[in-house]
Amino acid sequence: MLIRFKKTFEKIAMGLLSFMPEGKDLKKLQETIQLYETEENWQLFLYKRGDDFIGLIGVELLDDEAIVHHVSVNPSFRNEGIGKEMVLKMSSLIGNRTVCPNETTKPFIEKCIHPNEGTDL
């Protein structure tokens, strides 16, 4: 289940973001969370299974596009299809916008949207 980010989830979100390649720098993590907290068109969703938050997806909503800036799954739950499930569920939440990756998320998003053409991650 995708749940919209709230301030009370900040530490959980930072932990999940830290699993991304660029997520090792604490200052960068804080700036990223600040962006999702203050910019209305930047939306962060956490994926909850049972009592645990195990993934997140962050998008920037433009008029016709939703740019996926962050996709992260706890390493203990990888290769279970959770990332793909988050992308598909998020797609249903963004209306008629086209899902577009940024450079960091491009290989993964292409794999989710075009599974037979994607790259291995």
From TrEMBL:
GO molecular function terms listed in the Swiss-Prot or TrEMBL record:
acyltransferase activity
List the InterPro entries: Acyl_CoA_acyltransferase, GNAT_dom
CDD domains of this UniProt entry? Answer: NAT_SF
What are the record keywords, sorted?
Acyltransferase, Transferase
One Pfam assignment: Acetyltransf_1
Q: Could you say which EC number(s) this protein's record lists?
A: 2.3.-.-
Please report the name of this protein according to its UniProt entry: GNAT family N-acetyltransferase
- Name the source organism: Chungangia koreensis
